[in-house]
Amino acid sequence: MIIGILNQKGGVGKTTLSVNLAASFALTGSRVLLIDADPQGSALDWAAARAGEPLFSVVGFPRPTIHKEISQLGQGYDHIVIDGPPRVTELARSAIMASDMVLIPVQPSPYDIWAADEVVKLIEEARIYKENLKSVFVINRKIANTAIGRDIGDALSTYPVRVLTATVTQRVVFAEAAAQGKAVHEIDSAGLAIAEIEEVRKEIMEAIK
Ligand SMILES: Nc1ncnc2c1ncn2[C@@H]1O[C@H](COP(=O)(O)OP(=O)(O)O)[C@@H](O)[C@H]1O
Ligand SMILES: [Mg+2]
After folding, report:
1. Does any ligand 1 atom lie closer than 6 A to the CB of residue 13?
2. How deeply is 121 buried, as exposed, middle or buried, from its count of CB atoms within 10 A (0-12, 13-18, 19+)?
């Protein structure tokens, strides 16, 4: 399966979810490739910060030809995660065309809800060529017990894209893990962040069937 994690808005959690979902797939025993399609190379930086054995492969490919080269790039892998770029529409379009499913992280903020418009439009355009393209929103950086955290699902329902039931909470362990080039699976002793990522992975696997 090829999952593109996209949203032209920066800071919504594309890279955070990319590395942790890639880790989640890898820990089920799958061979996983993470393609960093962001010219800024944050996923590559993450991999460079890591000491010890990699959990999965990471390559940089910030070019608008991912959709043409994905079958070559992805040879030998069970799952591919594409960490999408902010802004650059050509790159985002190519990453969407390369994907079986687009996962759109959104933070519980009105700015994020409005900004999602751009990526949703790109997905609708891509569907002209790729009828079976799946797409879902995932709420990231949810703050527990806040009204905005509860209302975001309603606000997003104006879009023709489903919102995953699984959500990811604002947790410092995500940043702590990233600083060491690790997945939360490797450092989250409380297990709450891990449980959320695992729920997201399972729901995506269900949605792609
Ligand atoms: N669920 C979360 N809890 C805490 N911090 C998070 C969470 N998701 C993302 N972050 C932090 O927010 C910042 C932006 O996330 P990032 O994954 O780099 O977004 P993007 O790739 O969309 O630009 C980073 O500093 C990251 O550590
Ligand atoms: Mg990023």
Report:
1. yes
2. exposed
